């Protein structure tokens, strides 16, 4: 049962860079899927396509079996279902306090006040940053910022959480904490998690399925066990 799909997706940047060459992948509902690849593999470009920020030159992106609708209304709808967490948390946090940052998404969805407050609290608890709620976002550590960015997206109750390099720049304990909280969110909320990573070590530990990209192309896919046992 796939929730998000790329079908023969090609993307070319305006300078002529072929960032994605015929990418076909299916993200299974309720699983953790890794998109593994080195720098320049095309992972970020693909994730921007998943979220509708970039539109493939050819091919299509499907959410819940339907090709995504690039109208304003369609994009608003898609972004309420597919939440994206960027690699650099500073690109996602801009309010005066952690609480305000995390409430931005649900407020924007025009939810009732109590619903916003409840979602923000739950998201902060889930990411272990409740005690930081009144701090200015810029005063947080890098790992705390990563958590705050994740909390902000979780507060919008997406069906799919797409994260670009969620563990980059963290020490080993930070890596396992982030991956554990993602696994818990997936298990408790039934969401699907997709991570782009260059960190091969986390894939067999935390992911159910992996796609491997290199220079814009898909070069392997399967369970981590299958992918890493065949060289
Ligand atoms: P096999 O190990 O028999 O070759 P697969 O590698 O196709 O089988 O799938 C093994 C497991 O991975 C199955 O439980 C299947 O549901 C799951 N799976 C298959 N495709 C995906 C996917 N795109 N995302 C997440 N899980 C998947
Ligand atoms: P990854 O996330 O796997 O590192 P990217 O999707 O960022 O890969 O990049 C894929 C390719 O597209 C690379 O060759 C990169 O240099 C190029 N690229 C990324 N962003 C742009 C851009 N805004 N303009 C031109 N080329 C880009």
From TrEMBL:
GO terms for cellular component: ATP-binding cassette (ABC) transporter complex. Residues 4-231 form the ABC transporter domain. One of its GO terms (molecular function) is ATP binding. Keywords: ATP-binding, Cell membrane, Membrane, Nucleotide-binding, Translocase, Transport. It is a peripheral membrane protein. GO terms for biological process: cobalt ion transport. The keyword Nucleotide-binding applies. Signal peptide: none annotated. Transmembrane segments: none annotated. It is found in: Cell membrane. Its main location: membrane. The keyword ATP-binding applies. Part of an ABC transporter complex. Responsible for energy coupling to the transport system. Belongs to the ABC transporter superfamily. This is ABC transporter ATP-binding protein. It comes from Anaerobacterium chartisolvens. The chain holds residues 3 to 233 of 288 of the full protein.
């Amino acid at each position: 049962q796939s929730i998000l799909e790329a079908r023969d997706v090609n993307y070319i940047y305006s300078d002529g860079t072929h960032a994605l060459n015929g990418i076909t992948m299916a993200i299974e509902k309720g699983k953790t899927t890794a998109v593994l690849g080195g720098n320049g593999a095309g992972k970020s470009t693909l994730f921007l396509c998943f979220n509708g920020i970039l539109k493939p030159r050819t091919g299509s992106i499907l959410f819940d079996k339907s090709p995504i609708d690039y109208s304003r209304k369609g994009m608003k709808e898609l972004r309420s279902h597919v939440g994206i967490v960027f690699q650099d948390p500073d690109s996602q946090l801009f309010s005066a306090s952690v609480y305000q940052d995390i409430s931005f998404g649900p407020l924007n969805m025009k939810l009732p006040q109590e619903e916003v407050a409840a979602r923000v609290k739950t998201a902060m608890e889930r990411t272990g940053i409740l005690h930081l709620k009144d701090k200015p976002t810029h005063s947080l550590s890098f790992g705390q910022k990563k958590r705050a960015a994740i909390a902000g997206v979780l507060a919008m109750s997406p069906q799919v959480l797409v994260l670009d390099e969620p563990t980059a720049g963290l020490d080993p304990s930070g890596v396992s904490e982030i991956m554990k909280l993602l696994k818990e969110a997936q298990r408790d909320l039934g969401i699907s998690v997709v991570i782009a990573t260059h960190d091969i070590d986390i894939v067999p530990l935390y992911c159910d399925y992996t796609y491997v990209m290199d220079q814009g192309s898909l070069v392997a896919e399967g369970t981590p066990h299958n992918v890493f046992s065949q060289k």
